Amino acid sequence: DTGVSQDPRHKITKRGQNVTFRCDPISEHNRLYWYRQTLGQGPEFLTYFQNEAQLEKSRLLSDRFSAERPKGSFSTLEIQRTEQGDSAMYLCASSLEMYYEQYFGPGTRLTVT
Amino acid sequence: AQKVTQAQTEISVVEKEDVTLDCVYETRDTTYYLFWYKQPPSGELVFLIRRNSFDEQNEISGRYSWNFQKSTSSFNFTITASQVVDSAVYFCALSEARRGAQKLVFGQGTRLTINP
Q1: Cβ within 8 Å, pair A102-B91
Q2: Between residues A8 and B43, the one the model is more confident about
């Protein structure tokens, strides 16, 4: 039984660099979500996909952020020209369309120095 | 706009005590879902329960129970006979039930520490 996986688990980058994270959802799940969690806060929604279509983006997702889900399988989240304020845990979750439980991956912790 | 409030930032109890985590929500939707997630020190969010707005029946699962009261917009979580392994941050969350909008709105979480 494979759950949601994310890679890398940790990323340290210098301000101004680009970073890309990957999420592999549970195989039969057609919905995939990205959230961001900062220290001491609950996760905040960033964007979600149904299959390969990106259906909603939060205002938190500035133009430096882009997410893709080619072929409706894995997804990538790219942050361009990283800033120190981007330091956070980036969480991926997936769900079956007909059900509403989202199952989360272990997250990617980004530190921008 | 949807909002979830978990007023208790931190709770510390001694093992075997019962503890209740409070959750109050705001939404204009008549149909919605409520959730509880657990985030242990390892960091991965673990799904505990989903409740829809039409089902106010309380639920019990082992030592866990949930009390949903629509009249007070609350969805409280009780752990009976707490154990050290219950130590974690617990999040309450809300989502709309429309098919095209299932994003979760989380509260700030309650850090629960169970002391031996």
Answers
A1: no
A2: A8
